[in-house]
Amino acid sequence: MKSLVILFLFFFSFGLTQTLNELVIKKINNYRKEYGLPSLLYAPEAKLANDQMLNYMTQTCTVPLDHSQRIPTSFPVTFETFQERYEYLYKNTSCIALGENLCSFVDLKTDEERANMILNLWKNSQSHNALLLSLRFTGICVGNKTTNKIIIDGITFNDKIRYCVLTVYK
Q: What is the CA radius of gyration of the chain?
């Protein structure tokens, strides 16, 4: 009986924990709900394209500002531009529209603080906020990773940096 209670508590506590990605999706959907918009559903089929951009950002320690920028990568399937990621999703999923938000920031202590930072960065940018509140999209995928530096305008800043990619599609 004692082991059954311990097992139950383990699975119960495990079920209450959320990853940062899940927390960001939850916060985005709560934000959309404030505007009477439907929730976006997690879209695992977008994960490969999403991770491609995330790996590029952490390998180069940059956030590309131009979506037509070529992205050399060591991934087995190469999507070097936003357009190529879109074409991959269009061919391999039911995707007919695609959007992407990127951000980076000095890492914080808790996932709650990180998720709030990510959402606030995107809410405070007109184009990123428009993507969050668009009725055009139904699917969502979020990824995040850390590295120990960021390069801005050719200057390297050494700190623990968290990078995040949001891919939405319909």
A: 17
Does some domain include residue 146?
Answer: yes
Q: What percent of the chain has pLDDT over 70?
A: 81
| Per-residue exposure over 97-120, b if at least 16 CB sit within 10 Å of its own CB, e if not | ebbbbbbbbebeeebeebbebbbe
Distance of CA 133 to the CA centre of its chain: 16
> Does residue 9 belong to any structural domain of this protein?
no
- 27 has which bridge partners? none
Supply the DSSP symbol for 78: -
pTM confidence score: 0.82
Q: Whole domain around residue 126: which residue ranges?
A: 18-169
Residue type, 67: H
pLDDT tens profile 33-77? 999 999 999 988 888 888 888 888 888 888 877 655 555 555 445
Task: Give the DSSP letter string of 141-167.
Answer: EEEEEEEEEEEETTEEEEEEEEEEEEE
Number of domains in the chain: 1
- CA 32/CA 134 separation, integer angstroms: 9
